[in-house]
Amino acid sequence: MNSEQPTTAAQSAPSGQAxxxxxxxxxxxxxxxxxxSVFFDHRLALxxxxxxxxxxxxxxxxxxxxxxxxxxxxxxxxxxxxxxxRGEFQWSLDLEDVHLNIERRLTNLVGDAGKRLHTGRSRNxxxxxxxxxxxxxxxxxxxxxxxxxxxxxxxxxxxxxxxxMPGFTHLQVAQPVTFGxxxxxxxxxxxxxxxxxADCRKRVNRLPLGAAALAGTSYPxxxxxxxxxxxxxxxxxNSLDAVSDRDFAIEFTACAALVMTHLSRLSEELILWMSPxxxxxxxxxxFCTGSSIMPQKKNPDVPELVRGKxxxxxxxxxxxxxxxxxxxxxxxxxNQEDKEPLFDTVDTLVDTLVIYAEMMRGVTVxxxxxxAAAAEGFATATDLADYLVKRGLPFREAHEAVALAVRxxxxxxxxxxxxxxxxxxxxxxxxxxxxxxxLTLDGSIASRDHIGGTAPAQVRAAIARARxxxx
Length: 471
Ligand code: ARG
Fold this sequence. Notes:
With about 475 residues, the protein is mainly alpha-helical. The protein has helices spanning about 10, 30-35, 40, 45-60, 65-85, 100-110, 110-115, 125-160, 180-205, 225-230, 240-245, 245-275, 300-325, 340-360, 365-375, 380-390, 395-410, 420-425, 435-440, 440-445, 455-470; strands spanning about 165-170, 170-180, 205, 235, 280-285, 365. The strands form three sheets. Strands 1-2 form a two-stranded antiparallel sheet. A two-stranded parallel ribbon has the order 3-4. It has a two-stranded antiparallel ribbon with strand order 5-6. β1 (about 165-170) and β2 (about 170-180) form a beta hairpin. The longest helix has about 35 residues, at about 125-160. The model is unreliable at about 1-15 (pLDDT under 50). Arginine (ARG) binds near residues 37, 123, 124 and 336.
């Protein structure tokens, strides 16, 4: 057909699509599948309905549609919500995305009122609204899961406020700490993660609707009313920005990547601690699997997968950043690609948090192995140096004297505490008869008695602070 020739819609427009009026031929089947998003964006359905109903109420409130139209739209949407919840809704690829599927069903159910719904809005501000509503709900659920995981860590830490283990730097025994203190370090990280998510929520919770396609709309809309209706803290202040930026999704994914990164670190430790070489802990069988060939194996699959899935979430963060970086204002179809990484980030994070809290409740601690490991690596050498400093030696000289003592003990295959007072005095005349009191693991730990320190009293105080905050 000559494209110069005027044609009527009846002659040539492919039926079905909401936008097909200006097209001369139907969309290629492969392109239809390539451009459709309904396979994944149907997850937004209930939020799409919520947003549409709020929009319709506002349109009726300012007199753009009639009260009868609103009643029809509300009735139709109630039915559609039921169909979706019961799994009866027929999703159609021809209708491209969640928005057009629901709008078409509404029109089939209630007629003209359904056709009036899209007045003063575009799928551009609609989808941005849906994603924000969906993500806000996810953030609220995730916040609860983070708190539950913190509770499980605090519970275990409380049981082990006095359990001595080696603290490591460079994975070499450094100084003794308590296992409770070690666990509370992760509790601290997760507290910040929760704060970050709550802060991110403020920027998610802004209403794009009203931006329409990009420039706003000529109808006398009341955006504040829609925002209130949908529980948003306010409206997006610029229509171009409202439909185009996905920084809120990127920010959330960055928060999620940090949660996963923290849990990946803990996972790495659980894996090490469970290996027979360390033998510090055991993880309940229900979180482990065996080997099909090696009968002796019990593998820490869950922590290993958390470590692996952290790569996946970090990948989603990079995908979203890359999705955004070259886009001119305003909306571009690229943004349709925001959903799968975002959905998968939420799914992965929720599963991880829930499983992790349960798994930590199934951790058993081999306190004797931890203590023995702490006793092996000259973990109280710093305590001896501090002892000499308190008796007047400059720290650098004390460090040197103790290093020589460690070398001697190491050559003999014994610990510092195994050297006699007289032998220790050979490295510094300041060594007194009480020197062994600072060389014990428990003495070392108890002496770190300030806020943030590993003394059991301080660990208990940290636990009490966390419990007060967790409620
Ligand atoms: N499915 C689309 C998305 O997820 C909805 C917005 C489409 N807008 C458009 N102008 N084609 O981004």
